[in-house]
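ok trying again, last paste got cut off:
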Amino acid sequence: MFKSGIALAIITMLSRIMGLARNTLAAKYFGASFQNDAFNSSFRIANLFRQLLGEGALGNTFIPIYNKKEKELGKEEARKLIFSVLNLLFLFLLALTIITIIFSNQIMTIIAKGFDKRTNILSGELLRIMAIYILFIGMSGMIGSILNNFKQFIVPASTSLYFNLALILSALLFKDIFGIIPSAWAVTVGGFLQFIVVLPSFFKTFGKYSFKIDYKDPYLKEIYMMMLPMLLGVFGWQINVIVGQAFGSYLPSGSLTALSYANNLYLLPLGVFGTTISTIIFPTISRATAQGDTISVNKTATGGLKLVAFLVIPSTIVFTVLSKDIVKIVYGYGKFDSQAIKITAECLFFYSIGLFFNNGMQILTRIFYSNKNTKDPVKFSLISIGINVIINLMLIKTMRHEGLALASSITLGINFLQLYLTANKKYVKFDNKKILIYLLKTIVTSIISVLVALIFKNSFARIIVFSVVYLILWSRTLIKGGLNEFR
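nice, full thing came through this time. structure:
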């Protein structure tokens, strides 16, 4: 299982590096400005539906129901479900795209009410351009989820490479002529590229496409009955992001850009580690759950959290202790001045506190979905909205941008504990001792590594030394146990 994740992790890492490169260019050319504030706010809305309908609620609901139908009725009948889902999704996304184009200004006025008139007008214009991205990325994400269920991980993971390439080229070629506008067009072009890249693998796997929708299929009904509460849960967490954005619109110009860029750095380990691990283990957990193989479920879930601890805790230490070094290396060029570096580093510090919780939740939610339980994750997600709003209100006046980042981490911690305790009670017997030992070992070895790294003055040297020392400290364990160490 974990061997399958190596290639996926490499592709995801390349994609994230390209994502950082595109943000570095945007920081260099536009700085922490109202233009970047407008772009990041608009893109966050357009990208919302990728998590909701592609990689989120619909994708996670589809896999266990498809496996169930395949087991009960066979492959041919099960594949009819794929076409029904994709056809319905296309119609919904098309309608959503049209609505977004028509009401883009009103949407941004509601979401970012604290923006001044100039920023608000620009954000509405950018959202109108990016609206069709919703259609492309929603379809691409769903097709990617389907391919993942058939053990095809590389092509879906590689789609972001093309998206990032489109944004990088737009920044390099057109920023002097048209400003931030080409970046919005690049989002749409990038979404189109992500969509067409997955099509060859899809047609190779399933052959001729069917435009039929079998409305009478009970499995289709089951998907949407499960998806609705799950959609609320995923949307609940996305609302937390929008809440932070709404609060951030009242802060000085450039604050939202700092929050966004810090968030992009913070999400790097999530994309490379958390999402990769959960993507690999979800089909395994789903099938083991369907077969009643509780031993495999327990080992896979525990091993997943151990691997998350091994990979994510050092990232947390680096992003907190060396936050300014990281931001300076990635964004500290051109118009991204020392003040922008400072506030972005402060945001990164507090975001990173919740890094393990966010990565761990990727695995925990899959356990619930495999057991066709969407109600508990929804309940906890909705609770988190209220918690997040309260903490934001408490911290924004005294901590400003730092308070918004800290509120996100605290909310993630509470959500993680709710999921962990409930999953342990209902579905999985986690080896709590092993997980705790791994947490403590990774914390101790990470602290030792960062203390050695701080001896050096150069930012690059610090990060390299940290990585080398951390791997040396774990080398004996890894050589002795290999991949079995995470089972």
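cool. The chain has 18 helices and no strands. The chain has a mean pLDDT of 84.
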